[in-house]
Write a structure and sequence with these properties.
Radius of gyration of chain A: 21 Å
Shape of chain A: globular
Helix content of chain B: 55-70%
Shape of chain B: elongated
Strand order of the largest sheet of chain A: 4-6-5-10-11-9-7-8
Number of helices of chain A: 16
Number of strands of chain A: 11
Number of strands of chain B: 0
Order of helices and strands of chain A: HHEHEHEHEHEEHHEHEHHHHEHHEEH
Oligomer: heterodimer
Distance between the termini of chain B: 41 Å
Number of helices of chain B: 3
Largest interface: A-B, 52 and 46 residues
Strand content of chain B: under 5%
Helix content of chain A: 25-40%
Strand content of chain A: 5-15%
Chain lengths: 471, 65
């Protein structure tokens, strides 16, 4: 691809182009800033744009490269991330009014590892308030718009990440996934998103929502890009002892491995129930494509997934309320109505119910492992529908708001409860032009097999290369 | 496990230090009711000797090469 518009390259491609001096970091950064200036008024994807600082950092990166000094594999690559990753000295709003002017004093480990690889900061990306919402609405900063069809939502809570990556405003972005917050925007916006295993990437310095369920992961244009970012961020961190150490797989190499002979399961129920016909069609087409590539499909009978979604709701509600209790007492008026409503849900769950939901996690995972024995991954929809409109999903704190949210996230929450990795890949489009993504769900810490399958799928299809046009 | 009523919720929230009014209690009951219903078959069935580290043990039992 030409480097006349470098913002259209993938992360991997642009990093190589800069390293080989086929394009400068300034040219790349300016190109991204130009696109941001064009798209931001339509999308509302950025919380802050730091043009001058970004260009200065790009110039410094170019100067260093000219002197033969490279910071790492992402030297000079401009990126923006969900505005919940602490970056010392920077305002980190967490999508909230409460932290509108809060300046972080530490830097998140995941973000620091990307900085150490040489990235340049473009600004910060919009998100659902305190990462507590799956649609992309935000009572304080307005909804983020889907670049494919502007009056539709992006999904949340990594709303700006999904929108900005899809519109080619940033090459990739950090998101977080507690109940579906990476996979939902990846599905709705037509980008690749990786929800990692609980314990794979350090959560130190990432705004907490639920200590049991929170995960860090990337949204990017390709599986190859997600593999690159995972390799940079994964691994032990003394600041987060819950993060597992040990030798890491070569994720980039995994994307080049053949998939012939792998077995993928299709759940016999739950994930295939009550699907919009267009989602069902894309699921069938994805299965057909992977079959041609050599995957063997088998039907899998999973344990009752509704119990997992219920347990996830109990755990998330209580842990979120516990994190927010002080502000719920001191500043309830500063929350958006829906987020306050959802936080209040956690007040009503007795400790014994919460602890039972947590204690069941081990047996539930064991039952899942037994049911998926002999299967390398599962293929399932991310949601039963494509992106709804902003208007129809603006349920606020109405009586049925939680039910709407729970319906939308019913295919993502079991994965969070079990702590499993899941890769969302763009897999098709609706007749109305909205993207549809499918999720590949893997065994604990086996992100590599998901990347392997996803990369092969992307070599066989072009859904991930399509991009929305500004009309 | 029985889903809490709005009256129960008012009492629990007050004990938690964040009292709620009738309207909010009713909304919470509607919101979390399905969570209680969905978990009801599991609640009260877990064995006494379930090790606290079971989840981590199962999670790390089969780590990818």
């Amino acid at each position: 691809m030409s480097v006349t518009e470098p913002a259209l390259l993938s992360l991997t491609e642009v990093a190589q182009a800069i390293a080989q001096k086929r394009v400068s970091s300034r040219e790349v950064t300016q190109c991204c800033l130009d696109r941001i200036a064009e798209w931001q008024p339509r999308l509302n994807a950025f919380m802050s744009i730091e043009a001058d600082e970004a260009l200065a950092a790009a110039d410094a990166a170019d100067k260093a490269l000219s002197a033969g000094k490279s910071s790492g594999v992402l030297h000079g690559v401009p990126l923006a991330h969900k505005d919940m990753y602490y970056d010392a000295g920077k305002v980190v709003t967490c999508g909230s009014k409460i932290r509108r002017d809060w300046v972080a004093t530490t830097t998140a480990t995941s973000l620091q590892r990307l900085k150490d690889a040489g990235t340049v900061r473009l600004g910060a990306l919009q998100m659902s308030e305190f990462a507590y919402g799956p649609t992309g609405h935000n009572a304080h900063y307005g909804p983020v718009h889907n670049p494919w069809v502007l009056d539709h939502v992006t999904g949340g809570s990594s709303s700006g990440s999904g929108s900005a990556v899809a519109a080619r405003l940033t090459f990739a972005a950090l998101g977080s996934d507690t109940g579906g917050s990476i996979r939902m925007p990846a599905h709705f916006c037509g980008v690749t998103g990786l929800k990692t295993t609980v314990g794979r990437i350090s959560r130190a310095g990432a705004m907490p929502l639920s200590q049991s369920l929170d995960t860090v992961g990337p949204l990017a244009r390709t599986v190859e890009d997600c593999a690159l970012l995972l390799g940079l961020m994964a691994g032990a961190d003394p600041e987060d002892p819950t993060c597992i150490g040990g030798e890491l797989p070569d994720y980039a190499e995994a994307t080049r491995q053949p998939i012939k002979g792998l077995t993928v399961g299709i759940p016999s129920a739950f994930y295939v129930d009550d699907l919009d016909p267009e989602i069902a069609r894309v699921l069938d087409e994805t299965r057909a494509t992977l079959t041609v590539e050599g995957v063997r499909f088998v039907q899998v009978e999973l344990p009752d997934q509704r119990q997992l979604t219920a347990a996830c709701q109990l755990v998330l509600a209580v842990e979120a309320a516990a994190f927010h209790k002080r502000w719920m007492i001191e500043r309830p008026q500063d929350y958006g109505p829906q987020v306050l409503m959802r936080l209040q849900n956690g007040l009503a769950i007795p400790a014994i119910s919460y602890l039972e939901a947590l204690r069941w996690r081990g047996p539930a995972l064991a039952a899942y492992v037994a049911a998926t024995s002999g299967v390398d991954a599962l293929l399932a929809p991310v949601a039963p529908v494509a992106a709804p409109t902003i208007a129809e999903s603006d349920v606020g704190n109405s009586l049925d708001a939680e039910a709407v949210i729970q319906r939308l996230t019913r295919f993502t929450r079991p994965v969070n409860y079990l702590g499993l990795p899941s890769l969302t890949v763009p897999s098709g489009f609706t007749k109305g032009g909205l993207p549809v993504g499918m999720q590949l769900i893997g065994a604990s810490f086996d992100e590599a097999v998901l990347l392997r399958i996803g990369a092969t799928f992307q070599r066989a299809t072009d859904f991930h290369t399509r991009r929305p046009e500004l009309t | 496990m029985t889903r809490p009523s709005p009256k129960d919720i008012k009492a629990i929230a007050a004990v938690a230090g964040l009292p709620v009014d009738d309207e909010v209690a009713a909304r919470i009951a509607t919101s979390i009711g399905p969570g209680f219903d969905g978990f009801a078959a599991v609640a009260g069935t877990l064995p006494f000797d379930l090790e606290p580290a079971t989840f981590t043990r199962v999670q790390t039992a089969k780590v990818a090469p």
